[in-house]
Amino acid sequence: MKLSARNVLPGTVTEIVTGTVTSHVRISVGGTIVTAAITNEAVKELGLKVGEAAYAVVKASDVMIGKD
User: Which residues contact residue 4 at a Cβ distance below 8 angstroms, ignoring those fewer than 6 apart?
Assistant: First the structure.
């Protein structure tokens, strides 16, 4: 797998919550949960299953910071 994204985080799928069109896929990366919203079709094509290894790939043009 070759990607232009530089932030490729290996982890384990911990949960897949399927909606009407999209799914929320949660991946544990070193104990931190990263959540991605992807299409149900992508979940099926990738064959994602809880407990399996996967990568969280982060490619963003903006990074936002928040503070209370």
Answer: 59
Contacts 24+ apart (CB under 8 A), 26-34: 27/54, 27/55, 27/56, 29/56, 34/9
- The CATH architecture of the domain made up of 7-58 is Beta Barrel (2.40)
DSSP 60: -
Per-residue confidence (pLDDT) for residue 2, from 0 to 100: 82
Q: What is the mean pLDDT of the chain?
A: 92
Domain ranges of the chain: 7-58
20 versus 4: the higher-pLDDT residue is: 20
pLDDT of residue 6: 82
CA 62 to chain centre: 18
Q: Which residue has the tokens 């982060």?
A: 58
